[in-house]
Write a structure and sequence with these properties.
The structure is a single chain. The protein is α/β, with parallel strands linked by helices. It has 17 helices and 15 strands. Helices cover 37% and strands 16% of the residues. The protein has an 11-stranded mixed sheet with strand order 2-1-15-14-13-3-12-11-4-10-5. The protein starts with 7 loop residues before the first strand and ends in a 45-residue tail after the last helix.
Length: 500
């Protein structure tokens, strides 16, 4: 069977018979989950999936909490010792009693044989390398391509009359992520902090005005409205408490480390995944962040993905693939972290817009069952605990005989693929990755690989000035008007959050 069949993803070969296992790319519009204990090879399988999608011209967005996915950049068509030597593990060479150059020679020969055995030619690897633009974005850091996630809270280019629900969902994700970063717990439905900030953002965005974090924080003590719901503002959320909230958020702006969150390319999903001369592969590297910061980035990013996908025309073809490695903690069964809502929204709605989401984690019990039930493709590596196996067995109807035992006895790089639509399972041995599988990159290696992009990166756009926000109106009172100033007189605004 031809492994380069158009519209098909080549994952490996059946364990019985050796026929290539090909998955229709459009199948991933119904999403997927990959499970497997440490050492099962699940990350390698995920890399294979991404390589195949990119070969087919599908833009990909990779959320990489642990820093493992940058290896997809290491594409060496000929896999010569000179190609591999810079990426050799010196410790491994020492343990084997050989030089780094000798280890590179040995691994190059093994790799060439492995790829040839899977039918992967140098030309296939070269096609992936030459037709893809790989970028590693590092929000909160300049080690890779920096990403400005907080500098401009840009209003979506959508009509409120037609898209109010979509815009409010993005506002909820935005506010939730900011509060998470500040360490403030506030429920979107009942938390006064969440409600107040959401209303401020909505007031600006309804008039098509972008915000920046400084202006948003400055609006909290004296928001541009007098009521929240049926109650006066000071009854619902007294001024003293509003000032306390503003001071808490101001600590974000005052922190020296916050400067790195305000630099680099703007967070724009269309620019990350939009069409260009090459197929984009955007890797959001988060290994340098703590758990709170990762939650912030994932929530904000996926909330913007939801808005972006809803603006796309409907299609049954796979137009973009969102891949999340190590998804533990982002859509758990018993808790409601801010990231969970956009994840479930994408799983439930993205199919209509040709957007697929694949979640990867060690244990099935890490994911809410609503997430698993909305995934049409399950790929299962070796599992050991009874709870994990029970979760899989409960979700597979018409399973192959002795499925429980098969899952326990899977070898490394061996998986069971279950397609819900066909109620069919296949045991596959995954193919070797076209990229060279290295350890997670160091900060220096990320910086080196991304140096060409940083050299040509545009300057960070300026935040909106107070003058630009002159017509943001108080929804319940006359708008403030700047006093007239004679021509030639320099004007200085003392309060950047002032309505004029």
């Amino acid at each position: 069977m031809e492994i380069n069949k158009k519209g098909r993803l080549y994952f490996g070969r059946e364990s019985e018979g050796g026929e290539p296992v090909l998955l229709k790319a459009s199948t991933l519009t119904t999403h997927g989950v990959i499970f497997g204990m440490t050492g099962s090879g699940k990350t390698g399988l995920g890399v294979n999936m991404l390589e195949e999608a990119l070969l087919g011209g599908t833009p990909t967005l990779i959320l990489d909490p642990k820093g493992d996915m940058g290896n997809i950049l290491l594409n060496f068509p000929d896999s010569t010792p000179d190609d591999l030597e810079p990426w050799m593990d010196e410790g491994k060479a020492k343990r084997k009693g050989v030089t780094v150059a000798e280890l590179a020679t040995k691994e190059a020969a093994e790799r060439q044989a492995d790829l040839a055995g899977d039918g992967i030619t140098p030309e296939r690897i070269a096609r992936l390398r030459d037709n893809t633009e790989f970028k590693i974005y590092t929000p909160g850091s300049s080690i890779g391509v920096p990403m400005n996630v907080l500098g401009s809270l840009k209003a979506p280019d959508l009509d409120w009359q037609d898209s109010a629900e979509t815009i409010r969902d993005e506002i909820e994700g935005l506010v939730s992520s900011i509060l998470v970063l500040a360490g403030i717990k506030s429920d979107p439905v009942s938390g006064p902090e969440h409600i107040l900030i959401s209303m401020i953002v909505e007031t600006w965005w309804r008039q098509g005005k972008d915000l920046d974090l400084a202006t948003l924080v400055g609006q909290i003590p004296t928001p541009p409205f007098r009521k929240l719901g049926v109650f006066d503002l000071d009854v619902f959320f007294p001024q003293k408490q509003r000032m306390k909230l503003a001071l808490q958020l101001n600590s974000l702006l005052a922190s020296p480390s916050m400067a790195s969150w305000l630099e680099g390319e703007p967070l724009d999903i269309e620019k990350l995944l939009g069409a260009g001369d090459k197929t984009p592969c955007a890797i959001i590297y988060m290994a340098h962040l703590n758990e709170k910061e990762r939650q912030f980035v994932v929530t904000l990013l996926l909330s913007k993905v939801v808005t972006w996908m809803r603006s796309r025309p409907g299609t049954s073809e796979l137009g973009a693939l969102i891949y999340m490695d190590e998804a533990f903690g982002y859509a758990p069964p018993s808790a409601e972290p801010p990231s969970k809502k956009p994840i479930l929204t994408i799983l439930k709605q993205a199919r209509a817009f040709g957007v697929g989401l694949v979640l990867v984690t060690q244990n099935p019990v890490d994911l809410d069952y609503k997430a698993m039930s909305n995934a049409g493709t399950w790929i299962v590596g070796r599992l050991q605990t009874e709870n994990d196996k029970r979760r899989i067995l409960d979700g597979i109807s018409g399973g192959m005989p002795d499925l429980d035992a098969r899952i326990s006895n899977l070898e490394k790089r061996q998986f069971i693929m279950h397609l819900a639509k066909k109620s069919k399972q296949t045991v596959l041995n995954r193919r070797h990755s076209m990229c060279y599988r290295f350890w997670p990159f160091t900060r220096a290696q990320v910086a080196s690989l991304m140096a060409p992009f940083k050299a040509e990166a545009p300057t960070t756009p300026e935040a909106p000035t107070p003058a630009a926000s002159a017509d943001v109106e108080d929804m319940n009172a006359p708008a403030a008007i700047a006093p007239p100033v004679a021509d030639g007189i320099e004007v200085v605004y003392l309060d950047p959050a002032a309505p004029w």
